């Protein structure tokens, strides 16, 4: 079976709310694909449809080429963490997993293996009700891994975790991708995916806004912006603005320059005898790239709202 998720022309409406609007994208094996968009963008709805928990109005969602409902042993083909709270609080971690394994025809030894993988072996006999949020997320991930599936879907797994938990999840997702699995992980914060995702599917109001590698997105947003430091910020800004650049200060001695090459900036400042240091091409953060990407959509949305 191919380790892929293929979504094609997907649409879903709840009453008058369009949750998913003609969405098409593919999640490929061997990489972490981030699924990003603001709250209410349609990420959870898309994931639920892929997992057969909700029906689409139109379009299709396939795992390894087949719709979820036609998978013979779903847990061995796709694992999912949608809601870490969905465990009975009175149940011990290992009993919860054993029950899942048995009802899906999986060997009981998987329980110990997945608890070990997610770092919960020592808490195996504790009741889920006493778990911290981070432990519940790990238990949810252990459940997703029970069938050792080639495709994994995680809805906001980083939400509410402490820095150590976030570091752990990042490393774990990357190791799963390195094993050749297809990983789809959602977040409403681009910054959470900065060090985790290789590829991004960005949606807004249910529509696809970008389907791109992280490297390409950052390179495009970085463009030709120049960053420099100078003790004479205001004089520097005046000289560069007079030469036609768009200049913005980012702190008391640093500015960004759009519209002039680094060489031209150096020549202008040299001629004006203005000192500078750290003149270089600015590399956008993923957050900046995202803002750039969504700005047009926000403007479009605002216009669309006026009658
Ligand atoms: N069962 C439902 N009934 C009615 N409306 C729904 C239902 N599920 C989702 N919606 C609506 O569909 C839209 C998309 O919601 P969805 O939960 O898929 O977004 P999301 O991107 O996952 O957001 P979040 O980051 O907040 O989870 C929202 O406007 C939401 O209110």
UniProtKB/TrEMBL annotation:
Question: What name appears for this protein in its UniProt entry?
Answer: ATP-binding cassette domain-containing protein
List the InterPro entries. AAA+_ATPase, ABC_transporter-like_ATP-bd, ABC_transporter-like_CS, P-loop_NTPase
Which UniProt keywords are listed? Answer: ATP-binding, Nucleotide-binding, Transport
Q: Return the SUPFAM superfamilies for the record.
A: P-loop containing nucleoside triphosphate hydrolases
Keyword RNA-binding tagged: no
Matching Pfam families:
ABC_tran
Ranges for domain ABC transporter come to 5-230
Homology family: Belongs to the ABC transporter superfamily.
Q: Name one GO molecular function term.
A: ATP binding
UniProt xrefs under Gene3D superfamilies: P-loop containing nucleotide triphosphate hydrolases
Key word Lyase present in the record? no
Q: State the organism named in the record.
A: Kribbella capetownensis
């Amino acid at each position: 079976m191919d380790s892929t998720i293929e979504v094609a022309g997907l649409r879903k409406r709840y009453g008058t709310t369009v949750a998913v609007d003609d969405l098409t994208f593919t999640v490929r094996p061997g990489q972490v694909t981030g699924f990003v968009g603001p709250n209410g963008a349609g990420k959870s709805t898309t994931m639920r449809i892929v997992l057969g928990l909700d029906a689409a109005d139109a379009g299709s969602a396939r795992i390894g080429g087949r719709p979820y409902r036609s998978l013979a042993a779903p847990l061995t083909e796709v694992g999912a963490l949608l809601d870490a709270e969905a465990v009975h609080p009175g149940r011990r971690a290992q009993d919860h997993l054993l029950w899942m394994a048995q009802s899906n025809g999986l060997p009981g030894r998987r329980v110990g293996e997945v608890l070990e993988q997610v770092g919960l072996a020592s808490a195996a006999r504790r009741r889920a009700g006493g778990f911290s949020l981070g432990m519940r997320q790990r238990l949810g991930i252990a459940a997703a891994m029970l069938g050792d599936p080639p495709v994994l879907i995680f809805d906001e797994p980083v939400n509410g975790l402490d820095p150590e938990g976030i570091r752990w999840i990042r490393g774990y997702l990357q190791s799963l991708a390195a094993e050749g699995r297809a990983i789809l992980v959602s977040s409403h914060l681009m910054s959470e995916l900065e060090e985790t995702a290789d590829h991004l599917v960005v949606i807004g109001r249910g529509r696809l806004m970008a389907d791109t590698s992280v490297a390409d997105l950052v390179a495009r947003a970085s463009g030709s912006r120049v960053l420099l430091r100078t003790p004479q910020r205001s004089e520097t800004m005046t000289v560069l603005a007079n030469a036609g650049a768009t200049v913005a200060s980012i702190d008391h001695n640093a500015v960004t320059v759009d519209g002039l090459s680094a060489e031209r900036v150096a020549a202008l400042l040299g001629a004006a005898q203005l000192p500078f240091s750290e003149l270089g091409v600015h590399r956008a953060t993923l957050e900046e790239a995202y803002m750039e990407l969504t700005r047009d959509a926000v403007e479009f949305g605002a216009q669309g709202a006026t009658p």
